[in-house]
Each structure stands twice: as C-alpha cells, then as structure tokens.
Amino acid sequence: MTDNSLPTRSNRQGTETKRKKRGVALFIRDLLVIFVVALLISFLIKTFLVRSFYIPSGSMETTLLINDRIIVNQLEPKLIPVERGDVVVFRDPGGWLLPQAPLEQNAVIAAVDWVMAAVGLSAPDSNDHLIKRVIGLPGDHVTCCNPLGQMSVNDVPLSEPYVSLPTGETSVSQDDFDIVVPDGSLWVMGDNRYNSKDSRYNTETPGKGFVPIDNVVGRALVISWPTARWSWLDDYPEVFQGVPTETR
C-alpha cells in the first residue's frame, strides 16, 4: 500500500525552488528598500546640512584651485551666523556672472548627474554660484588701502596671510575703496586679489557689490577632492580678532 501523506521527490524539489525564488525576491526587495532609504537620507542631508560644489575659477587661489571640490555647510547662515573670514558659496546677486550656455548631456549622463546631484555628490549648478571670503559684515566700515597696502575693517588694519599677490605687489587691492556694508549684506573678496571679480568690481550691479546674506548657500568646510588636497578651510579668526563690531 502507498502512503499518500508523504511528499514525493518532485514535490520537495518544487517547494525548494519556490523557497529559493522567494528568498531572491526578498533579497532584491531589501536591497531596493536600503537604496531608497539611503537616497532619501542623502537627499535630506544635501538639502538641509551639507552639499558638494566644484571650483570653476581661480579667484580663490591659492586657497582653492580650479576643479577642487568642496563640502559646504548649509547650516550657515540659516542657523549659524556668518563670520568675517568665512569662505562662503552664494548665488549670484545679479550681474556678477555672465550668462551660461545650457549644458548638453545625453539622457544616461543626465540621469546619473541628477541622481548624484540629489545626494549632494555632484554640483551641476556650480557655475551659477560664486565663492569668496567674507571681509565685511553688516555695518562694517571697510577701506583700502593704507600706506602699508593693508585693508582695514572698522579702522583696524588686517594682516591677511591667505591673500595671493602678484610678484612685486604689496597692496592687497589693486584699487582703493571706502564702503560701509548695509544691513542684511556682506562685503566679499577673493583671495587671489588681482584676479577676482568680487565686491570691489561689481559696484555697478543692482546690489552695488554687496551680497545679500539670504543669497549665501553655506560656508565651505573642506576640500574633498582631489585627495592630495584634502584639508579643512581656515576662516583665520586671528586676522579679525581685534576688529570691533559695527561702528554705527
């Protein structure tokens, strides 16, 4: 007599096959969930905390070189106030940048770039932003240059070790200026002083060379690429240590 309650060999094989397929499906599902969660976390970090930019010009040499990649802290100035000496990324206040031609990419590269940008690992809008060092805060009286070629903030001369000057030049600015920073704005300058279209050279724009604090995306924290240049970006607090608060 045959015992029909015992599974046949073919039934056992079918059950094992189903179990394996279910295991593969669960594994793929878990991978997709992990990927989506990681993408969401990266997106939130990029949106609210940090993001990447690359350097398109030499205006901050030798602090930053062309094609350096930097990590930007977006909590400043949203939660942390901007300080003198900070290197900040900001949106064009209007008229600082020449019109940019649209970047043409094939569909695959554009999709990859979109994903990388969403998680903060790519910066397709770097050419729409600028990066400079904050010199003057709202209310500051900024002048240049004294007989020693120094810039002064609120009547305190600055000794600026980060400035790059052409051979033979001792003045930290090619042109003299005397300004007071309006409320809600910043006076910014490039470290490569003789090759930087900064606040000095945008006085004919609608903002008269001042950068609204609302335009600041964040403070540059670190050079992340290339690895040979990995370093934290100094805001040189000792340079501005003796500068009093606004004079007015």
TrEMBL record:
SUPFAM superfamilies: LexA/Signal peptidase. The keyword Protease applies. It is an enzyme of class 3 (hydrolase). Keywords: Hydrolase, Membrane, Protease, Transmembrane, Transmembrane helix. The keyword Transmembrane applies. One of its GO terms (molecular function) is signal peptidase activity. InterPro entries: LexA/Signal_pep-like_sf, Pept_S26A_signal_pept_1, Pept_S26A_signal_pept_1_CS, Peptidase_S26. The chain crosses the membrane at residues 26-45. PROSITE patterns: SPASE_I_3. It is a single-pass type II membrane protein. Belongs to the peptidase S26 family. This is Signal peptidase I. The lineage of its organism: Bacteria, Bacillati, Actinomycetota, Actinomycetes, Micrococcales. The gene is lepB.
